[in-house]
Each structure stands twice: as structure tokens, then as C-alpha cells.
Write a structure and sequence with these properties.
Number of strands: 4
Number of helices: 3
Largest sheet: 4 strands, antiparallel
Structural class: alpha+beta
Strand content: 15-25%
Distance between the termini: 11 Å
Length: about 130
């Protein structure tokens, strides 16, 4: 992934630095939360667009697609653009997570979103 400075982040993507995403999988149960810092935590809920079973990670199926879509929508201020890039984010980040419990900073997802937008010609490549 390319390295983009905060000043290069398009205006339709949040720039909050301290945000982290937390995933926990126990058997067939998964839970993903956003940690906004200072005790502010929000649980993400599947939309049911891809997977009737909810979120998952570590492969390229419907559960990871559902998670990537909801994460992209939570980061991006433009849901239409989120719909265009989430599959790329699934392959760049979600499918590669190989642990049952994980914590990833927003930057990991933001970089994947920016790379996808750039690759699709939706923003200028800033490298």
C-alpha cells in the first residue's frame, strides 16, 4: 500500500487518528467494534447485504465482504464511494487477517481505501 500523509487524505474519508477496529471470533460468533478512544466504543452491526451469518475474516467470502462494507461505510463520508471500494479493502486487509482476535488502526483501512480510490481513478494518485 502507498503511504499517504494526513494532508493527502480526501475530504470524504475521516482523519481521526486514534480510531481502532477490534475483531473477536469465538467459534462461529464474531464481534467487531470501533474504539474511538477515551472509552467510546461502538459495536458494528452487519447490514445483511452479503452474509446472513454476519462478519468474518481471513478469507475472501461473504462474511469478510460484509465486514469490509460496514468498515468502509464507517470510515467514509460517502456511502456510494464505500460501495465501490469495499471489495478491494476486503482483499487488501480483511482476507489477510489470520487471528481470531485483532486490533487494527484506522490507518490500515484508510490506506486500502485511498489505494482503491486511486486505482479506480476516483482520486488522483498522489505519489
Amino acid at each position: 500500500m502507498a503511504n499517504h500523509s494526513k494532508s493527502e487524505v480526501p475530504e470524504h474519508i475521516t482523519t481521526k487518528e486514534e480510531v481502532k477496529f477490534i475483531g473477536i471470533r469465538k467459534g462461529f460468533n464474531t464481534q467487531v467494534k470501533i474504539d474511538y478512544g477515551e472509552g467510546a466504543i461502538q459495536e458494528l452491526k452487519p447490514e445483511g447485504k452479503h452474509s446472513p451469518d454476519g462478519f468474518n475474516w481471513g478469507y475472501g467470502g461473504s462474511g469478510p465482504a460484509e465486514l469490509a462494507l460496514v468498515i468502509c461505510k464507517s470510515i467514509m463520508l460517502d456511502e456510494e464511494l464505500a460501495e465501490q471500494v469495499y471489495q478491494d479493502v476486503k482483499w487488501a486487509v480483511i482476507a489477510k487477517i489470520q487471528t481470531d482476535t485483532w486490533v487494527l488502526p484506522i490507518d490500515i483501512f484508510r490506506e486500502a481505501i485511498i489505494d482503491s480510490l486511486s486505482m479506480r481513478g476516483l482520486i488522483q494518485n498522489r505519489e
